[in-house]
Specification:
heterodimer; A: Rossmann fold; Rossmann fold; seven-stranded parallel sheet; 48% helix; B: alpha+beta; Creatine Amidinohydrolase; five-stranded antiparallel sheet; 9 helices; 40% helix; 18% strand; globular
Chain lengths: 592, 333
């Protein structure tokens, strides 16, 4: 795509190199501001995608690329950088406010204009990637120190660890020396190895940009962080939060602007600091979506979910899954409902699916009471491929692609193998195995296509690795789920999609009373159910324990999570002493 | 349900050996001071104490401000009740704030006691007090929140179904543990968590009676000594006839509802939010009714659906009786 180059002169005489893509006559102008140690080249992949619908502008910040580089540190204060932006805006979009996007230092300096008065009416929206407002950060630090609690202090310490380089950049001689020597080759190699940045995406002016740009830190960090100002803004702001950012923690970048930004969207992204080079399609999509919405289009479902609701302001701290969409099958009772509600409590939007429409609707209702911003419910039979297809389509249309899918729906079947009819097998495998297969297949494809990663949790059972003479069908179905999970985990790892199996022990849910026993009379059936229910009650293991394990599995991307002592001990025995389990398996443990 | 319903259960084997039901009944009569059926005057007195306790909860709830601690709230209830006619305790007043309304991570009974937890805007709270006046005992629970809590409001709304369900099944004279399970089934349908199982003995309810014992009005482990004495006697006496004054889901509750007064306390939770009510249910040989319908939670339900609710039991001049009784209490104090 054609890249037009021109120059703009800043008020202090510094010449800035400006690059443009797409039609100048397009209805909207998007201005991209790069960070350190980059040039406009960091935006090229995104700019080319955006240029199909917008007039796209990027410029080399003073000190970088083809722009002039004054020597004095005082020429790099946020105020002068704001004046640079003003000069660029006057040239590229004299009549209409622009949509501003900043990455790293480009975002930090853009915040200066977004929260200031000089350019406020020239900016229609702002998308901030990995670069917080220094004043907001200063306030955030202060508020945490004023009301310290272990969590807040932990977040401070964690951000402190990630900010080591700021102190290092203030050292004399050493940083420029290293940039000029070892880092010339090491830096691109590091970016490739750690962040997955493709080879050859660096600018030809690289080590010089890095040395000159040190002035950005030296001119601004200490004054802004030591004496943070209160800088509110009415401009709508979309904050992209790369979850694996090595320099800016998502906790800080997500929370710091909250008290000062009236209209805020938070979008977690499974990426590192250089997301513009590694996740260009996702970011281009998000910028486009946001620009379109601010220009008047209705919000796409996942953009709508990402908006921080004013009433959720005080929950910002705890809302670990805010903005995420979670789909749970079998969500009308037991583990499924507890899991859906746990995610809702953690700020997620929840879609509850169950065979029983009333109970699915009830789960959705409770989820919204707990503060889930958008909820939905569907009546669906997971064993019916056509119904699942319909369900997945409906979810995509109404809510977008999910971030987390919990394949939970399952049924119980007990009794001897030789008493188990083919139809029994069809029923158990249909729900317990094929239900999971359909869920993984349909939603996994959606996650892969969207390209933002995600997580699939399959609820297996301790029976997956504990053989029993009376559970052949059920245990087989769950063992298959466990293996499916392991295989899928290997396959989807490259897409950033985690797959976990959760293996609960004897959890007190309705399954005890709904389990069918083959080879017994109707009277005996009821008796067995009653006895099993009594044992489950005595075991007293609430489904909330499993729900907590599901959230942990997603948070830590754990492969297999046994829940409760019997599940953990069983798993250990299955490795250390399978003979013991085989011995136990021969005993008929059905409560009679 | 192996030992359900009859007067001689498995625990009554000793009694069987001694002889027969007559003798046992005599023994029980001397042990227990519970009356086969309470006289209307007695019920009026119970009703008055229950009204007193709920007025206390409402009055103290109205004073709760951000920053107040559980200990302060419990202390306020204590003072209010002592000033307004209570002379002893079944148990000292309790107050739970925030996630403590669901007994989150309660491992020991000591955790029921009020702490320094502070009340914040939007936080749910539960006030639970059990004053005794002239031997008549009340035990009530009052749930609310500071400035509104949507989850708790929903639970409080749904508690109406539990009040109806419990009464209906007691009237059918279902075994108590079966009723407990029906309540659990309703809890599962609603998607809540049964929190009354955290109470000592997992009780959904416990019997209440008139204290007649003499002795000091000391408090041990949060319970009035005289109440503990009475409860101890009840436990023994009821055990002999194969019944329990505690209503749980185990075998010892596998009998039809015992005539007398039961303090019923369904306590539900959803995530970090809990709510309950607690009030006296009158069980007679062949019927049952709530002692009083003029209580805050019932009034709230009635206000929401004026046409749907009708009084469970006709009590003609209750308002007068109550106000008289309260005056009596106050003058007695």
């Amino acid at each position: 795509m054609k890249e037009l180059q021109s120059y703009v002169t800043a008020p202090d005489g510094v010449r800035l190199a400006v690059f443009e893509w797409g039609e100048r006559s397009a209805a909207t102008t998007v201005v991209l501001v790069h960070g350190y140690p980059d040039t406009h080249a960091v935006w090229r992949p995104i700019a080319e995608q955006l240029a199909e619908r917008h007039h796209v502008v990027a410029y080399d910040v003073r000190g970088a690329g083809h722009s002039d580089a004054p020597r004095a540190v005082r020429c790099y204060t946020l105020a002068t950088l704001e004046a640079d932006l003003g000069a660029v805006l006057r040239q590229v979009s004299p009549d209409r406010p622009v949509h501003l996007v900043g990455h790293d230092w480009g975002s930090i300096q853009s915040w200066e204009s977004v929260t200031g008065t000089a350019l406020a009416d020239r900016i229609a929206s702002f998308t901030s990637i990995s670069g917080p407002c220094l004043d907001h950060v200063g306030q955030w630090f202060r508020s945490r120190l004023r009301r310290p609690n272990p969590r807040a202090l932990g977040q401070l310490a964690w951000q402190g660890v990630h900010s080591w380089y700021i102190g290092y950049f203030h050292l004399p001689l050493l940083p420029p020396l290293l940039w000029r020597t070892a880092m010339v080759r090491a830096w691109p190699a590091l970016l490739h190895a750690v962040e997955g940045v493709p080879h050859g995406s660096g600018a030809p002016t690289f080590p010089t940009d890095a040395v000159r740009g040190l002035a950005l830190y030296r001119a601004n960090m200490i004054p802004r962080l030591a004496r943070p100002r209160r800088r509110p803004t009415d401009i709508p702001v979309q904050v992209v939060l790369p979850q694996k950012d090595l320099y800016v923690t998502p906790a800080m970048a997500g929370q710091a602007p909250q008290p000062f930004v009236g209209r805020l969207w938070r979008r977690p992204l499974r990426a590192g600091h250089w997301a513009p080079l590694t996740h260009e399609t996702v970011l281009a999509g998000w910028i486009d979506e946001f620009v379109a919405h601010i220009e008047g289009a209705p919000a796409a479902p996942d953009l709508d979910r990402a908006q921080v609701r004013p009433d959720a302001a005080d929950r910002g701290e705890t809302a670990e899954y805010a903005g995420r969409l979670v789909v749970v099958t079998g969500a009308g009772s037991g583990i499924g409902r507890a899991t859906a509600l746990a995610f809702a409590d953690a700020g997620a939007s929840v879609v509850a699916a169950d065979l029983n429409p009333e109970s699915a609707a009830r789960t959705a209702q409770l989820a919204s009471l707990l503060g889930a911003p958008r909820t939905g419910w569907y009546a669906v039979d997971v064993s019916d491929p056509a119904a699942m297809e319909e369900f997945a389509k409906a979810v995509r249309a109404e809510h977008g692609a999910p971030d987390v899918v919990v394949n939970n729906a399952g049924i119980g079947l007990g009794g001897a193998f030789l008493d188990t009819a083919t139809s029994d097998w069809d029923a158990v495998l249909g729900v317990n195995l094929m239900g999971v297969v359909h869920g993984c297949r349909l939603f996994g494809a959606m996650m892969k296509e969207r390209g933002q990663g995600g997580h699939i949790v399959n609820i297996a059972s301790a029976a997956a690795y504990l053989p029993s003479r009376t559970l052949s069908a059920y245990a087989t179905s769950k063992a298959a789920v466990l293996m499916l999970t392991e295989c899928l985990r290997a396959e989807l790892a490259d897409q950033g999609i985690g797959v976990s199996a959760v293996c609960p022990g004897f959890v007190n849910t309705a399954i005890a009373k709904a389990t069918r026993y083959v080879g017994v009379s109707a009277g005996e059936q009821e008796q067995l159910r009653g006895k099993a229910d009594r044992l489950y009650r005595l075991r007293n293991l609430p489904p909330e324990r499993v729900a907590d394990a599901v959230l942990r599995a997603v948070r830590e991307n754990r492969p297999v999570v046994p829940v409760a002592a019997e599940a953990r001990i069983g798993r250990a025995l299955s490795r250390l002493s399978p003979g013991t389990l085989r011995f136990v398996a021969r005993r008929d443990l059905t409560p009679r | 349900m192996t030992d359900g319903g009859t007067s001689c259960g498995s625990a009554g084997k000793l009694a069987d050996d001694i002889c027969c039901a007559d003798l046992t009944q005599q023994y029980v009569d001397t042990m227990s001071n519970k009356q086969p059926a309470w006289a209307p005057e007695d019920l009026d007195r119970f009703r008055a104490v229950q009204q007193l306790a709920y007025r206390c909860a409402e009055a103290v709830a109205a004073t709760l401000e951000p920053g107040v601690t559980e200990k302060q709230a419990a202390q306020r209830m204590r003072h209010w009740l002592m000033e307004n006619g209570a002379d002893d305790w079944f148990h000292v007043p309790f107050a739970w704030f925030g996630d403590r309304t669901t007994f989150h991570r309660f491992r020991t009974p000591l955790q029921f006691f009020p702490t320094d937890r502070r009340l914040e805007e939007g936080m749910p709270f539960i006030l639970d007090c059990a004053p005794v006046a002239d031997g008549y005992t009340a035990d009530i629970g009052y749930a609310g929140s500071l400035g509104g809590n949507a989850v708790q409001a929903q639970i409080l709304d749904d508690l109406q179904e539990y009040r109806a369900l419990i009464l209906a099944e007691v009237r059918e004279r279902k075994p108590l543990n079966a009723i407990y399970r029906s309540v659990d089934a309703l809890i599962a349908k609603h998607g809540y968590d049964n929190r009354h199982r955290v109470y000592p003995g997992r009780v959904l309810a416990h019997q209440v009676t008139r204290l007649k014992v003499r002795g000091p009005r000391a408090i041990v482990a949060g319970f009035g000594v005289r109440s503990l004495q009475t409860l101890g006697r009840e436990l023994v006496a009821e055990r002999i006839v194969g019944r329990s004054p505690l209503w749980a889901d185990g075998k010892s509750s596998g009998h039809a509802p015992t005539p007398g007064l039961w303090a019923v306390e369904p306590h539900l939770g959803l995530r970090q939010v809990g709510a309950k009510f607690e009030e006296l249910l009158v069980v007679t040989e062949d019927d049952a009714y709530w002692l009083d319908d003029d209580l805050p939670h019932v009034r709230a339900w009635t206000a929401k659906a004026p046409a749907a609710t009708t009084p469970e039991h006709p009590t003609a001049d209750r308002a007068d009786a109550v106000s008289d009784a309260v005056t009596e209490e106050e003058s007695a104090a």
